[in-house]
Amino acid sequence: MAQGTIKKLVSDKGFGFIKTDRGELFFHHSAVQGTQFESLREGQEVEFSEGRGPKGPRAEAVTLVGGAGDE
């Protein structure tokens, strides 16, 4: 799985962006696994697989690195 850092969250719209070594990657709240989207914070490290959405590449199966986060 690829790794990156949450760069920006748009909580009221339910999506965000992950900073990777190849640029930024969109993710939707429905791709988050193991924790709630609302508990994510900018700067957290995540793992993900890269997939394709209707508007191009996106992160799928997004999980926090090292645990479930702030529960």
Write the layout of secondary structure elements.
Layout: E1 2-10, E2 15-20, E3 23-28, E4 45-53, E5 56-64
Antiparallel strand pairs: 1-2, 1-4, 2-3, 4-5
Question: What's the shape?
Answer: globular
CATH class: Mainly Beta
Unreliable segments of 5+ consecutive residues: none
Count of folded domains: 1
Q: In total, how many beta strands?
A: 5
CATH topology, by name, is OB fold (Dihydrolipoamide Acetyltransferase, E2P)
Class from helix and strand fractions: mainly beta
CATH superfamily: Nucleic acid-binding proteins
Q: Output mean pLDDT.
A: 93
List the keywords.
OB fold (Dihydrolipoamide Acetyltransferase, E2P); 0% helix; mainly beta; 71 residues; 5 strands; 5-stranded antiparallel beta sheet
Question: Mind explaining what this structure looks like?
Answer:
- The protein is mostly beta strands.
- It has a single domain, classed as Nucleic acid-binding proteins (OB fold (Dihydrolipoamide Acetyltransferase, E2P), Beta Barrel), CATH 2.40.50.140.
- It contains no helices and five strands.
- Strands 3-2-1-4-5 form a five-stranded antiparallel sheet, with no helix packed on it.
- Strand 4 and strand 5 form a beta hairpin.
- It is globular, with a radius of gyration of 11 Å.
- The N and C termini lie far apart (24 Å).
- The model has no long low-confidence stretch (mean pLDDT 93).
